[in-house]
Amino acid sequence: MSSPHHPVPPDGQSTKPVEVKVRRSTSFRDDAIRRFKKNPTAIIGLIIVFLFLFIALFGAYFTPHDPFAQNIRNAHQPPGDGYLLGTDFFGRDILSRIMIGARISLLVGVTVVILWGLIGIVVGLVAGYYGGWLESALMRIVDAFISFPGIILALAIMAVRGQGIENVIFALAIVGWPTMARLVRSEVISLKEREYIQAARSLGFNDAKIMFQHILPNSLATIIVYSTMGIAIPIIAEAGLSFLGLGATPDQATWGFQMSLERQYMRTAWWGVTFPGLAVMIVVLGFNLLGDGLRDVLDPRMKE
Amino acid sequence: MMQVSNLKTYYPIKGGVFSRVVGQVKAVDDVSFSIKKGETLGLVGESGCGKSTAAKTIMCLVPPTSGEVLYRGKNIFKFGRQELKEYRKEMQIIFQNQYGSLNPRKTVGDMLKEIIRFHQLAEGPGIDKKIQQLMELVGLSIYHIGRFPHEFSGGQRQRIGIARALCLDPQVIICDEPVSALDVSIQSQILNLLKDLQEELGHTYLFIAHDLSVVKYISHRVGVMYLGRIVELTETEKLFETPLHPYTQALLSAIPIADPDHTSIKAVLRGDVPSPNNPPPGCVFHTRCREAMEICSQEIPPLREEEPGHSVACHLYEP
Fold first, then answer.
1. Chain A contact present for B104, CB below 8 A
2. Contact between B102 and A3 using a beta-carbon 8 Å cutoff
3. Which residue among A65, A221, B59, B220 has its CA within the 20 to 30 Å range from the CA of B84?
């Protein structure tokens, strides 16, 4: 607990005005970065996430084969021998398709979770903080959304809005935010009774300030963990929608679409469904490890 | 300075379909007292007797059921947004739980800076100077400024809580059991700090505690609460010398005396405090009172002045 940054020795009850520097921001940030570096699983998570982001952004430029070139003679080639991860039913290179599919799959996963956060955090904060009829009204809306089976609701929205990735994102955001709102609300309800929130109220701070600057930072751990776990949900759901012909169009490549195409050949050509599935798994693992690390790093109580 | 009259705060008990209100916890039931400028009014009572709820109601943290609190002649429950903000500058609270009362994600400096910026109490270098002054005022070093609450001891945290309350330069400070979670040696440090600050800055305190010796040390006047009501209210010396209410007598006789040869006749109370959601009719204390009469279970005794400056709510002293 030594504080090398502070100019005054511990016994120095200074009477003269000394230049006071509140060094928190730098020292806490330095400390957070140092702790992050010491956390091997978080580093692995960061590497995985960056690797996939890199593939999503630039993978299209160095795929080993044309991800869209069909060649029936090459259909269902096993892994190895020119095709590292084998080929699919149309003879397309699976590695190339995973690389090109990373773009849409990650886009869907990350964007949808961000949208959940934006809607769910605001609704959860307002409902939990104000309580009363406002909470009842908001939570009944949330219940109404949750009472629909998610995929059916998404299908209905897709049916109205038509095929396309932006509509997939819209539909999945609509389906998923209520869970986030509930989670945030339950956090807020327990936090708002804490004495430091009461103290903030008695200091005259306005509600928005208390909600966003006092309650929200203290519920970040839960939100981060749920968000990083939640990335998998839209990636898989996008596969489901694509399988039903409502997600990606056949001229696009996504991991989920690839899995749903190859699912029926699982017994004769296991690689077709396994490798895109592994890609989903590794990405989710990466975000999870990163989120876990972030949660620890962002908590000042973990400071050494 | 402050006049509390007939304050009632009931918490609804909800149950059944559509969360109907099926009962009420009468946390504060018809409490009246006044505080003069520069004095310390102590409120004592067992846990659950409504001391903290009374404090929170006066701080406008909990809505009152009825009654009024006049501060400088104005009813605080009728304040608009802006008036309430001004009121909160004059009225601050120190909490019991020093662990829960500080935001774990803010350093001491950030916490104070936020208050100063929000209320525009200082600008530029003046902010740091004010923080420094506050830290010195409560006996903390300026090198503590960059630290997080979990890096402090209990007593230090309570000092931070006091610094936060002092930041707005309030007139009245409500101390909600500020020392009951601290070690005895730290208790005296904090009590002395509060006393010194009062002498220096002329604060008015509403001091809530369950420890009679603490209240005796710091208060000018004391109110004794039982089950949401004030049963006796007088100057500290009078209360400890000539307690009138049977409950106060029982409380005082329970103070241990550090003398093995001393044998006192203790007025031991039997039974438990009745539930505040279903208080007994008449005087709320009659179920445990040794002096209980027939009238006690029928009529609620009003708090009336038995001698000048000594009020008691008991049928024994009815004329």
1. yes
2. no
3. B220
